[in-house]
Amino acid sequence: MQIPNSIDAVQEMLGAQGYVCGRALGTVVYLSLTLGRPLFLEGEAGVGKTEIAKALAAGLNRRLIRLQCYEGLDASSAVYEWNFPAQMVAIRTAEAGGGADRDALQRELFGPDYLIERPLLQAMRPDDRGAPVLLIDELDRTDEPFEAFLLEALSDFQVTIPELGTIAAPEPPVVIVTSNRTREVHDALKRRCLYHWVDYPDFDREMAILHARAPEAAAALSREVVAFVQQLRTEDLFKKPGVAETIDWAKCLLALDAIDLSPEVIADTLGAILKYQDDIARLQGSEAARLLDQARASLEPA
Ligand SMILES: Nc1ncnc2c1ncn2[C@@H]1O[C@H](COP(=O)(O)OP(=O)(O)OP(=O)(O)O)[C@@H](O)[C@H]1O
Ligand SMILES: [Mg+2]
């Protein structure tokens, strides 16, 4: 699969994977593919950052390689490790057999059979289908030393393994970096990338997403769900619901055979959209009814 040759083609390709992509996002994705630059996506939780990489890999028919970041992630877990237990077994076996050729054993122990490839190395391996999509997810969870390391890895796409030599990617992978912005990612890394802030979708786009992800939901219920969630996001909440929550909620309501929203059904299913007790408590009593009224008013033709 060739990379799409226009912004429209990018939107179409992602759309075919059930990913609703606006013009602005389509543009940075197109540029990132065309210029071969990593794409840095920041945004709230559950707004479709991770999903872009999945849809892109599926649309391009490329392999998706995911590096999930976490506190304490280091180069060896990200690039490669030697399979130490297997090496130990091989050494013991050789010892038991007696008269082992030490040099041959040494070469074998630090050869491909004992190498565990982690995502960054995997992403540099040639692939018949074309360079893979490398998703570096939630970069803000790692620390600065790892970021510095990553910066270097992203600049030349090669890894040097002392025992094996340098491995270089024949074609650089398509890189998507995401962050939930729990801390600022360093400028040096951002500078290498194209940047896009993934915001909560507006009403129409969220309807389109819901339609793509939960097509079984009737239009009338979907409209109320989306209008209510949009209204909820204007409230001062500890954690606003993302798109993922909208989809979950619609599915919960479907499972309960709800045909429209009511304060009672909202109270019963609030756990699908709000995940903090303080936020849930705010919506007790008449609050849910008030928000529902506002949501319905927003649906009425002006
Ligand atoms: N534009 C979209 N088109 C289709 N589905 C979407 C879109 N945005 C979000 N979704 C849906 O929302 C879900 C959550 O998206 P995703 O996991 O990508 O969010 P995220 O931004 O990575 O969140 P987090 O920060 O929590 O990891 C996806 O499984 C997908 O079904
Ligand atoms: Mg994510």
Which kinds of small molecule does this entry bind, naming each only once? adenosine-5'-triphosphate, magnesium ion
Instruction: Give the overall pLDDT as a whole number.
Output: 93
Seen as an oligomer or otherwise, the chain set is single chain
The number of helical runs is: 15
- Give the DSSP E fraction (strand runs of 2 or more residues): 5-15%
CATH architecture descriptor text of the largest domain: 3-Layer(aba) Sandwich
User: How many β-strand stretches?
Assistant: 9
Main sheet specs: 5 strands, parallel
Rough shape?
Answer: elongated
CATH superfamily of the largest domain: P-loop containing nucleotide triphosphate hydrolases
Say what the CATH topology of the largest domain is: Rossmann fold
Walk me through the structure:
The protein is α/β, with parallel strands linked by helices. The protein has three domains: 7-71 and 121-198, 3-Layer(aba) Sandwich (Rossmann fold); 80-113, no CATH class; 203-292. It has 15 helices and nine strands. The chain has helices at 7-16, 23-35, 49-60, 75-78, 84-97, 102-109, 119-122, 144-156, 187-192, 203-213, 219-233, 243-255, 263-269, 277-282, 287-299; strands spanning 39-43, 64-68, 80-82, 115-117, 133-137, 158-161, 165-168, 174-179, 194-198. The protein has a five-stranded parallel β-sheet with strand order 2-5-8-1-9. A hairpin with a 3-residue loop joins β6 (158-161) and β7 (165-168). The longest helix has 15 residues, at 219-233. The protein is elongated. The chain starts with 6 loop residues before the first helix and ends with a helix. Bound molecules: adenosine-5'-triphosphate (ATP) and magnesium ion. The site of magnesium ion (MG) has 4 residues, from α3. It holds the Pfam family AAA_5. InterPro entries: AAA+_ATPase, ATPase_dyneun-rel_AAA, CbbQ/NirQ/NorQ/GpvN, P-loop_NTPase. GO terms for molecular function: ATP binding; ATP hydrolysis activity.
